[in-house]
Design goal:
single chain, 9 helices, two-stranded antiparallel sheet, 72% helix, mainly alpha, 2 strands
């Protein structure tokens, strides 16, 4: 069992709940469905519901308040979130996450480049292709989920359950920052440039490039924030 396996039930739930928020007459501030209600309505397990709500929270559609419930915080897809505001509230925490990612992901991918299989390359290509479609259609939730999935699967391929478990938690936390930065104009497409370069280096088993491209990709997040200062 992989700790970071993606469940299609979760993806199904995310899309259905997103559509419900947009199309069922909700307004910002309205209370959303409880976990129990979602479980009953969609006949799914609580773990899938919690994962779906996590994604919707990361992308800004809902906000959970302890002891009170979950509330609608956004309806529309488009948002001109100011990167400066994000920087002021989150830069320190982001810096710590980037530091941990730089310790784990470049070293992991340097190992992976020697053992990655054609089937694994094909899986990453499919994730990348879906991401580009989501970027073109400006589907924020899909971009966030697929970006997270790309980085999760890279580590999964090493078949180290402990490393996968740690990486999954890091990538989940990073999704909150992905959501905030991707809602800024033009950052949808920029986010995929790094994935393409990493994927090409893996396909060519380019040991000299793969680690360097991962480092550049991770550091790009810091550049977004630095530009906002």
């Amino acid at each position: 069992m992989r700790y970071s396996s993606w469940n299609s039930v979760t993806e199904y739930l995310v899309k259905n709940l997103e559509n419900k928020i947009k199309n069922d007459g909700y307004k910002v501030g309205d209370q959303f469905l409880t976990e129990n209600a979602i479980c009953q309505q969609y006949n799914v397990g609580r773990s899938s519901v919690r994962e779906a709500l996590r994604v919707l929270s990361a992308t800004g559609y809902i906000k959970s308040i302890r002891g009170k419930g979950t509330f609608i915080s956004r309806i529309e897809d488009s948002s001109d979130v100011a990167l400066k505001e994000v920087h002021e509230t989150d830069s320190k925490q982001l810096g710590k996450l980037v530091e941990v990612r730089l310790l784990i992901e470049p070293a992991s991918i340097l190992k992976l480049v020697h053992i990655i299989t054609p089937e694994q390359i094909e899986e990453l290509e499919k994730i990348y292709s879906k991401s580009m479609i989501a970027v073109e259609q400006k589907q924020l939730v899909d971009v966030i989920m697929l970006d997270e999935k790309f980085h999760v699967r890279l580590i999964d391929f090493l078949e180290n359950e402990y490393l996968s478990m740690i990486n999954l938690q890091i990538q989940k936390k990073m999704s909150e920052f992905r959501a905030k930065t991707y809602r800024v104009k033009d950052l949808f497409a920029l986010s995929q440039i790094g994935h393409r370069k990493i994927l090409d280096a893996l396909k060519n088993h380019n040991v000299d490039q793969v680690g360097e491209q991962m480092i550049k990709h991770i550091n790009k997040v810091k550049e977004y924030y630095r530009d906002s200062e």
